[in-house]
Amino acid sequence: MGWDSGAGVKFSQDSQAAVFFVFMKDQQFHPGIRAGLPGFIFGERDILKHALSNITFEKFASIQFSVFSIGMLLFREKVPADWVPKVLANLPAVLVDHAHLERKAATTALNLEKYRDLYGRVEEINAIAIEELQHFQLVLDLLKKRGIPFGQPFPSPWITGLMRSVRNGARHQAIDHLICCALIEGRSCEKFQILAEVLKPVDAELATFYASLVESEGNHYATYWLMARNIDEPEADRRLDFYLDLDAQLMRLPNPHPILH
Ligand SMILES: [Fe+2]
Ligand SMILES: [Fe+2]
Predict the structure, then answer these.
(1) 192 alpha carbon to ligand 1 midpoint, in Å?
(2) Ligand 2 centroid to 109 CA: how many Å?
(3) Tens digits of per-residue pLDDT, 189-234?
(4) Ligand number with the minimum distance to the CA of 101
(5) Are residues 149 and 58 part of one domain?
């Protein structure tokens, strides 16, 4: 695959591979995660700054896009080729779907607080729920500005398929639920990056909006995954492997609706 490392940053030499950075809020390095999730590179902001000297996050995001050809190493299946044209042709419906996605992200975060293994993390999870509610409001504001009525959500076979495999039993359920949430956040992060790029010539306001959400969803991805690993590392790794296969299978299913996932 050809990874070059330097100053805590890894660059893929393979044009098919993704190089993706998540700037962790706690400014910590997470080498275990880097090992567990090639394709997602975690680094301290200052280290990245040093390594990339004078390259801003926005500028880097655009470079990153040209490096990865729609696909991230974390995931075992690319975003289907028909997804971007479908989204671009149905922006009002996609925005309504996005509003529901943020609403569900907020309620899901609150639901995670029921797990005994996460009692100690309740404030962190609350912070995510609040952030998701803020995202929900931002999308509602966009809907209002554009005269798009808030309406019914489309079902997502991908999200339903992931959630159907959450096992029973407190600890197993918490780990599976966290991994599902991490993958949903990760896919959102990936797709928002794509939208930020492809929307530029079509709808500059929306392109900027999607770019502004990338870091936050990436942080949610990282937080949920770290929480799952924190409960039981080998079990979380094993389940991630299972879920990445499931994600790939579900991504290949036809999905005619104009939805984000
Ligand atoms: Fe969000
Ligand atoms: Fe999120």
Answers:
(1) 10
(2) 9
(3) 889 988 988 999 999 999 999 988 987 887 888 789 889 989 998 9
(4) 1
(5) no
